[in-house]
Specification:
heterodimer; A: 183 residues; alpha+beta; Ubiquitin-like (UB roll); 5-stranded mixed sheet; B: 643 residues; alpha/beta; Rossmann fold; 25 helices; 19 strands; 39% helix
Chain lengths: 183, 643
């Protein structure tokens, strides 16, 4: 495996080829906030909380660090005014389902009218059930703004006993609603 | 059918087809594109066949069904060769007249000829009609010459000769060099150079490789790719086969949306007939090169037009874009190197091979070469498909080719690039249409949709329409796009209902900029464009909605009322007959009035009101209603408003 050198927040770090920026940053004690990421699961790149600014050969761009693989001589900035703005806006858009992140970014109210109050559609439960449990009992129904979490009735019998995705749930939909249905 | 085993066989076949055809023989062509079929061109074709039989002209006259001619607003189109007489809007009943007058007596049927809007002058030849005269039709021209179901028609005009040339005279490097030299950029929206894509795919040391035609054209009002695939599918196949040879692929896919049944049918026939001739399948033209094509039918998701989502769909997964930052030309379909381009881009390839990169480069602007097909729709006199060299100004397209705005209305804006594009106001009409100039102006080329809007179009409502479309067509995977569109739609809905708040415009701008930066795929990154560009050019309209609860264009239903002006009313009663909610009735003075309680503001009365009267007016709802709009019993209200 080839070793790659890059700079994250001014710190020179070494990484193995194929690793993502997020993995390398965490190994080196550099914090990048995430929402839809879990170490047990394949990165999905959907929440965009982990956006970082990269520059290579003078070209700057914003990328999701959980899916961007490290490159030689990459310079990464994990925080800036622009990135902060994006993260705060995402928290506002998900208001009030992500209280921990809201506190972290000092967001105490949202300029938007929330439509979901318990689910931020991060998809952790869907991916856990598919990748770890290999059951696919939870899935995304609909597309666009109609997207929601649903259970496959024929497979959800097991959910009553499993409940493993409960620990991952950010907004509490699974715990509050489905949990009460199945308890 | 004989199997062709060498370029020589192909040439012999071509010569034998051409020798049986007399270029001076009368040939009646009936457009059978989707637009003309909807106008009844199928019946016209049948009627022609019967009439020609009846008058015993079968020996002297050919009859041919062809692909889309492009002048779809005036269909069904009939073109009679060799004189190229063009008849517009013909009906079944006109066929006997055309046959006995034009074909037998060589006289014109005046009522079906094109009449100039201004001078009223009649134009006989199709090439002299302004709609066609100012175009440069390279890709679309052949549509009018061939029957899309007959491969012989395509071979007769030199079809598949580019394959013979590439397979036997060029090596792969020459081919890629030629395409790179021509600087053919992707016509699907991204504008990425095709030659570079080919080279990347080719250089990845992984096999098998794939090539894909993206025919998942989903922009509202756009149908360029549809017409190409329906009217000349062999041209696309030929381009794809050449591309497959260049990148070293042996398997290709054509992803066609299922909403295009005719395109599917014609492509299927094209693939079968090409295979029978040995132009597809094993050992193409005896060269030793094998290539197969599979059609994949799309299930109606707009987002599947995004390249990685399309590949997911072909693999049998949900059509959602992939988050990885790896080009599909390196890791695409089943993680193999895949070269994907849209229909129009592939269709350009045989022309570049036949005529050379220098010829291609001679058309267009510095960084955008060749021609581009636009579907010119909306408030425009000549609706249809136009093909122009890159760099043609919007003004030329709208006024010279499109013939301007109907009903002497004023031009307001033109929307380019579909839902992800933007609107351009009148003072930007002189910018040259190419990839870079449009992006600079805050819109984009997209796949070539061009929607013209007149003064009666509300720009806030336009933005709201596109955002609503995108909100339901986004895959919903990433938060900026899904939640951003949800909130944008919510804000725009409130503005168009007159309950927008101060600060909404700024919030929309901030949200839009965030979506551009943070969304996962190109759909999300470009989704706020309709909002941002309308705010940029028509901020005053947003302000009128928010600050005064007024819709300047008179479109937003919650902010307007319809009213019949008693002085202008002819008492014809057309509005009463056409009102779907029976909201219009006569009062005791025989004047028609609209009952505002049951009026749903559909605008039917306005569209049926005779032009000389124009008695229906749109008023700002927040202005006191006219006295005669109120129920007569409501004396108190009447008194208040009359003072």
């Amino acid at each position: 495996m080839k070793t790659i050198e890059l700079v994250i927040d001014g710190k020179k770090v070494q990484a193995e080829e194929g690793a993502t920026i997020l993995e390398v940053a965490r190994e080196n004690g550099i914090y990048i906030p995430t929402l839809c990421h879990d170490d047990q699961l394949q990165p999905a790149g959907t929440c965009r909380m982990c956006m970082v600014e990269i520059s290579n050969n003078g070209r700057k761009k914003l990328v999701a660090s959980c899916v961007y693989e490290v490159e030689e001589n990459l310079v990464v900035k994990t925080d800036s005014e622009k990135i902060r703005k994006i993260r705060r806006m995402i928290v506002e858009l998900l208001w009030p389902t992500v209280p921990a992140l809201a506190k972290e970014f000092g967001v105490d109210k949202s300029r938007f009218v929330p439509e979901h109050t318990e689910c931020c559609l991060c998809g952790l439960c869907v991916r856990y059930c598919a990748e770890v449990k290999k059951l696919n009992a939870v899935y995304f129904k609909g597309r666009g703004i109609d997207r929601e979490i649903a259970f496959v009735p024929e497979l959800a019998d097991e959910c009553v006993y499993c409940r493993e995705c409960f620990n991952l749930c950010v907004g509490g939909l699974i715990v509050n609603q489905c949990g009460s249905v199945y308890s | 059918m004989i199997k062709l085993n060498s370029p020589h066989d192909l040439e012999i076949l071509r010569e034998s087809i051409v020798s049986k055809r007399d270029p001076n023989r009368t040939c009646v062509t009936v457009c059978s594109g989707t637009g003309c079929l909807a106008y009844g061109s199928h019946d016209i074709f049948r009627e022609f066949r019967l009439e020609i039989e009846k008058q015993r002209l079968g020996e002297e006259v050919d009859l041919r069904r062809t692909g889309c001619h492009g002048f779809c607003g005036r269909g069904p189109l009939i073109v009679i060769f060799p004189e190229k007489i063009c008849y517009l809007g013909a009906q079944k009943e006109d066929v006997a007249d055309i046959v006995s007058k034009t074909i037998v007596d060589k006289e014109l049927v005046d009522r079906l000829l094109y009449k100039d809007f201004e001078t009223g002058e009649q134009i006989t030849r199709i090439d002299d009609i302004p709609f066609y005269k100012y175009q440069k039709r390279i890709l679309l021209d052949n549509n009018a010459l061939i029957d899309p179901e007959k491969i012989d028609d395509y071979i007769a005009i030199g079809g598949y000769s580019a394959i013979a040339k590439v397979l036997f005279e060029w090596n792969r490097d020459d081919l890629i060099k030629e395409i790179k030299e021509a600087n053919l950029r992707g016509r699907g929206g991204g504008g990425f150079p095709m030659g570079v894509k080919w080279e990347t795919t080719r250089n990845v040391p992984v096999d098998p490789k794939y090539v894909i035609v993206n025919a998942d054209e989903g922009d509202p009002g756009a149908y360029m790719d549809r017409s190409l695939l329906e009217g000349n599918p062999h041209c696309v196949l030929e381009g794809l086969i050449i591309g497959a040879y260049a990148v070293g692929s042996q398997e290709g896919f054509i992803y066609v949306r299922d909403e295009y049944p005719l395109a599917l049918e014609n492509t299927k026939i094209a693939i079968e007939t090409a295979r029978e001739y040995g132009l597809l399948g094993e050992n193409i033209l005896g060269s030793g090169f094998d290539f197969e094509i599979t059609i994949h039918r799309g299930a109606g998701a707009f987002v599947s037009g995004e390249s990685s989502a399309l590949m997911n769909a072909v693999e049998g997964r949900v059509g959602e874009p992939r988050p990885k930052y790896i080009h599909t030309s390196v890791k695409g379909l089943w993680d193999r190197p895949t070269c994907l381009n849209n229909v129009e881009t592939w269709a350009n390839v045989p022309f570049i091979v036949n005529k050379g990169a220098d010829w291609f480069k001679s058309i267009g602007t510095e960084n955008s070469k060749g021609t581009k097909i636009f579907s010119l729709v909306g408030k425009i006199n000549n609706t249809g498909l136009v093909e122009v060299p890159m760099g043609t100004t919007l003004r030329e397209i709208v006024y010279h080719i499109g013939g301007g705005i109907p009903n002497a209305k004023k031009f307001k804006a033109v929307q380019t690039g579909g839902p992800s594009g933007g609107v351009l106001p009148e003072d930007m009409l002189d910018i040259p249409v190419d990839f870079d100039a449009l992006t600079e102006a805050g819109s984009m080329m997209g796949s070539g949709g061009m929607i013209v809007m007149d003064e009666n179009t509300c720009m806030v409502d336009t933005a709201r329409y596109y955002i609503e479309f995108l909100a339901h067509e986004s895959c919903g995977k990433c938060i900026p796009c899904r939640e951003g569109l949800r909130q944008m739609l919510r804000i725009l809905n409130s503005i168009t209902r007159g309950v927008g708040k101060e600060g909404d415009i700024e919030l929309l701008e901030e949200l839009g900029e965030m979506m551009q930066e943070a969304s996962l795929c190109a759909l999300g990154k470009t989704a706020p464009n309709p909002v941002l560009s309308t705010i940029r050019h028509f901020r005053d309209e947003y302000e009128a909605h928010i600050n005064e609860a007024r819709c300047p264009a008179g479109v937003c239903k919650e902010l307007i009322i319809y009213h019949i002006n008693p002085e202008d009313c002819l008492r014809c009663g057309l509005c009463e007959k056409n009102c779907p909610t029976n909201a219009i009735s006569k009062d005791e003075d025989e004047v028609y009035v609209i009952n505002q309680e049951s009026c749903i503001k559909c605008g039917s009365c306005m569209s049926v009101c005779p032009e000389k009267a124009n008695a229906i007016v749109v008023e700002n709802a927040f202005r006191p209603p006219f006295a005669n709009d109120l129920p007569k019993t409501d004396v108190a209200a009447t008194t208040i408003y009359s003072t």
